[in-house]
Amino acid sequence: NDANFDVPAHPAQYDWSTHYPDHFPKDPAEQSSQGVVTAASLCEPPEVNFADVGCGFGGLLVKLAPLYPDTLMLGMELRDKVSEYVKERVLALRRENPGQYTNISCLRTNAQKYLVHYFRKGQLTKLFFLFPDPHFKASTHRRRIISTAQLADYAYLLAPGGMLYTITDVAELGAWMREKADAHPLFERLSDEELELDPAACLLASATEEGQKVARNSGQTWSVTLAIAVNIGIS
Length: 235
Ligand code: SAM
Description:
Blueprint: H1 28-33, H2 39-42, E1 48-53, H3 59-67, E2 72-77, H4 80-96, E3 104-108, H5 111-118, E4 124-130, H6 148-157, E5 158-168, H7 171-183, E6 187-189, H8 192-196, H9 204-207, H10 209-218, E7 225-231
Parallel strand pairs: 1-2, 1-4, 2-3, 4-5
Antiparallel strand pairs: 5-7, 6-7
The structure holds S-adenosylmethionine.
S-adenosylmethionine (SAM) binds near residues 131 and 132.
């Protein structure tokens, strides 16, 4: 139920320091009252640059964290218990590996409705939709997370050159997502050569719990449709 979680009216209203305390000055008020100026207190506050929409149990974030240690990443998950699990998982990883996994966190929200409440225009450099719910019936296609209207929102939130990643084992949904991305003027598909150079693209099939389940269950016949588009920044 959406009534159970608060949504900021505007991205600037949200306090990210609770998610990534190590990346924010400890106590800016105290520092300035003592006249102490640290590098951290002079800089703009850090921002989330990667978002994993429908992050499930957080496998992708855990794999990405050490690859991009200076990038803040957020998993967005609708299910309360699953989002709590990811938060606990991250806290345990931080305890066991001091100084690591400080750059990943999870937020419970309906990303389909509230993405623009959390990120400003051009803020994101990577946006992931891994194994999204298929919504098989034609009457529920409007709930699919990749649609023409929502691609416009994603293009708004992505920085020029930012990337949008999708993967699914449902052939019909894969064709749908590819078709929507190909038809959208703000996105273009990356070549296989470009994908091979991208460490995140190489993780899509194997990093998440759903990807691992698909691989286990269907062995050789496992089929995945991968569409990656780049926001080419037309203004
Ligand atoms: N990406 C993960 C993976 O690959 O293991 C999870 C895939 S699971 C099939 C889809 C996830 O998306 C579920 O955990 C579901 O709760 C979440 N989800 C569905 N609709 C959502 C929404 N509107 N906002 C946030 N999460 C959503």
